[in-house]
């Protein structure tokens, strides 16, 4: 309930916090959660994209101040003898759109620094507002953890490892148990009223007395905001297409730079071979043919991580 309330209050801004509980046998039991205070975005590693920390709330779980905040909160929980093991963190989502660099960096931080069994709880606010609770648990796969640690996201590395979008996260089964106090509170909530729902006419006579309109309401039919979920999905699709075009342009620029440098290297090698042939006829020592590695520097291939997660 605390996770759902925090995510709903901050929507559409991303909400984050950490969860505590106990690791019992093969089950990870989560008993409490605490939201993160808003802080400045932390500095990212040099070999990762700096845009990953552009969203301050989404970057909060790996901030140094919040790490100290978690340690202090856990210390106080242990003083009152309650579950005080940090077992992961939570975040809000908008129509399933939560896999991004911030989410991956946060979960990598937890699995690397705390425990490989820590999880990320994702609560989708818009889907839950339709009457079905959307609460899911994820963990980074071991294959992705290895690739992320070594920063192997070039085309060749991805081709060898066979890493796909489906291999980034592992979804874990999640079961929600309510406390007795929460169950009692839910029983006190009033049931939704059904009086406003339009009922079908009980007989043909009633239908003749009050005929239903045969023509649709043109005003509501022409309104573009009939389905806000369709609008949000379309915006997310357009953002993904724009990101794809940006990555495509970067890769094409890299290919042009690589072809230009390789042409220079080929011309240099041909020239060096001709010089060595002339020196051989003059009975002189040949010049080294691998000197091009010092004279020319091939461009670095851009990482394919952002393309992989989009």
Give a topology summary.
Layout (H helix, E strand, L loop, with lengths): L1 H9 L5 E9 L2 E9 L20 H4 L4 H16 L5 E9 L7 H13 L5 E6 H4 L6 E6 L1 H9 L4 H7 L7 E4 L7 H9 L15 H6 L8 H4 L6 H54 L10 H4 L9 H5 L1
Parallel strand pairs: 3-4
Antiparallel strand pairs: 1-2, 1-3, 4-5, 5-6
Question: What can be said about this structure in brief?
Answer:
The chain is 46% helix and 14% strand. The chain has 13 helices and 6 strands. Strands 2-1-3-4-5-6 form a 6-stranded mixed sheet.
Structure description:
This protein has 310 residues and is an alpha+beta fold. Helices cover 46% and strands 14% of the residues. The chain is built from 13 helices and six strands. Strands 2-1-3-4-5-6 form a six-stranded mixed sheet. The chain is elongated, with a radius of gyration of 29 Å. 19% of the residues are buried. Residues 41-54 have low confidence and may be disordered.
The rough form would be described as elongated
Main sheet, how many strands, which sense, barrel? 6 strands, mixed
Question: What sequence of helices (H) and strands (E) makes up the elements?
Answer: HEEHHEHEHEHHEHHHHHH
Question: Count the strands?
Answer: 6
State the end-to-end distance. Answer: 31 Å
Q: Bin the helical content.
A: 40-55%
User: Structural class of the secondary structure composition?
Assistant: alpha+beta
Portion of residues in beta strands equals 5-15%
Q: Tell me the strand order in the biggest sheet.
A: 2-1-3-4-5-6
Low-confidence stretches: 41-54
Number of helices: 13
Average pLDDT figure: 78
Global Rg: 29 Å
